[in-house]
Every structure is written in C-alpha cells, then in structure tokens.
Design brief:
Layout (H helix, E strand, L loop, with lengths): L3 H20 L7 H4 L3 H9 L3 H6 L2 H9 L6 H19 L2 H18 L4 H14 L1
Helix pairs in contact: 1-6, 6-7, 7-8
C-alpha cells in the first residue's frame, strides 16, 4: 500500500522530471507535459496553489521543506528549482529566478552530487539577475 508521503514524493519526482524536459525544450507527448497544472500539483504537494507558494519568501518555503523528512529535501529542492526556473524564465520574473537559484544551490548542497546542468542554470540566473 502506498503511503501519502510516498505518493507525494512520487509527484515531486514526476513534476521535477516534467519540468526538466520543458526547460530543455524536450517535452514528451504525455498529458502531464501538455497540461501541466501547477496549481493542482502544488496543492497535492504543499496544500496550496502556485500563486500562494510563490508569494512566500525563500525562507518560508525552506521552512516548509524542513518540515518534511530530511532524506526527501533534495527532491523538494530540485523540483522547486526547476519550477521557479521554468516559471521565472517563461514569465521574465526575476523574483522567481532568484528563488530558483537558492533552491538549486540547496539541491546541490543536500544531494552531494555534481549536476552540471544545474550549475549552468545557476550561472545563467546570476547573469540574468545582474
């Protein structure tokens, strides 16, 4: 039987992968990429829609992640980085890009992996925010 935590973690990973494909302009022909409903996914994951989540400060969002199990933090940060990067780039929103940078940096710290695409995105964000 799948628990709520496992279901939420699966949603986070699926959303992160879908966003990664959209960021790389390689969306698959699946329902998730065609009609990626950020609000319903955010409600399933965070119990709030994207507008409410995005209105929170970086610190407040980090506190929400810290309430989750520590082993899952890297997945949350990767998904949040991808989400805010995608939304920031598509909407030209520097606040979202700043949040993406923070969450990508936290992802690199918590995962302990060397992720060149994420490092390149951080560099791109820094240039855009100058």
């Amino acid at each position: 039987m799948i628990t709520d935590k496992e279901f939420t973690l699966r949603l986070i990973r699926q959303l992160s992968q879908a966003l990664e494909k959209l960021i790389l302009d390689k969306p698959e022909e699946s329902l998730m990429q065609k009609e990626l409903d950020f609000d319903s996914l955010m409600k399933d994951i965070f119990k709030m829609d994207f507008t409410e989540l995005s209105s929170k400060s970086k610190t407040e969002i980090i506190e929400i992640v810290n309430e989750r199990q520590e082993r899952d933090h890297k997945d949350y940060y990767e998904m949040l980085g991808n989400l805010f990067y995608f939304k920031g780039r598509s909407e030209g929103n520097s606040d979202f890009l700043g949040k993406a940078q923070t969450f990508y940096e936290l992802y690199l710290q918590t995962s302990g992996i060397f992720a060149l695409p994420v490092i390149n995105r951080i560099s791109e964000i820094k240039k855009a925010l100058e």
